């Protein structure tokens, strides 16, 4: 088949990009033709003649009045993206287009252009953007579902996007316009890594859209499981409030971190300084270490040497790669019972769950994992088996190609 993959970043920036690049590699290895539409950037992976790129747009950088106006207009309609996708369709005639994270920088305008060109489309949902202008269904550190059934004005009223009134107004306007234009209706099928996302987007959508569960995959051959581990708990991810870091620090304090066990926190984010100050205030420096961003083989080695991984999120997580990677490395996970996390972290099988924001519940789970190493090791083996069975590349490719055939026939 000839497939066009579209995502605004063409390098490994986050989970959406990881999936986009991994799928591209698997499709090519299977003999399919693959083209990409993305943004130009110095960190982009090598391109081919089948790829096209538009000018980079960074909404986090400060811009003058005209720059802001130009950037805002691109959110609603990106002329360059439309021109590029039209050129790709004429040159390559793809059988199907597969969207990932295209909002704002590439813009939903490419969906309308592909529909005009009669190219069938699917989209993998990595967040809740079709029903939430701010992506996360969260505002002010709390779960928010006010925009359900198309009430997008709440995003502007609550300043949900970048803590900016103009950005939030623009996000609301974007949602209303694409609802009016029927943009989301032109995508044949939405692929959801978690069943939770299927249910939540379905119940919040103003119009019925076709959603299907398709779990993420992991090339387990790249992950060597190590079932033994030191009395160490690892958190790896963004240091932001929705990830539940304050709850994790409090839970570690209540369980006397530093006395027989340690907590290693890997990652960067806006909450780091606040968290480090709290650890210093409580005198927990010997037990809690902030080690900054870590990836690749270095991250694998840290997880392999630990007993358990913790994912204490307080927002509707979809299907975190942090959990799949921990499982592939032979480690069970302590995860909050929110979003898609409980679909992977199955109590007494692949880990422990606790109510989001419950420091006592989290602390008790960490203590259980550390005090019963044989049970923890057996859970790690079960976690590895789950990834091998349900999240392997071959199974995912079979399902995805069947979907491509379905929508393009």
Automatic annotation (TrEMBL):
Matching InterPro entries: Glyco_trans_1, Glyco_trans_4-like_N, Glycosyltransferase_grp1
UniProt domain Glycosyltransferase subfamily 4-like N-terminal: residue ranges: 14-130
Glycosyl transferase family domain residues: 225-385
Molecular function GO labels: glycosyltransferase activity
Any Pfam family the entry gives: Glycos_transf_1
Protein's name in the database: Glycosyltransferase family 4 protein
Source organism of the structure: Eiseniibacteriota bacterium
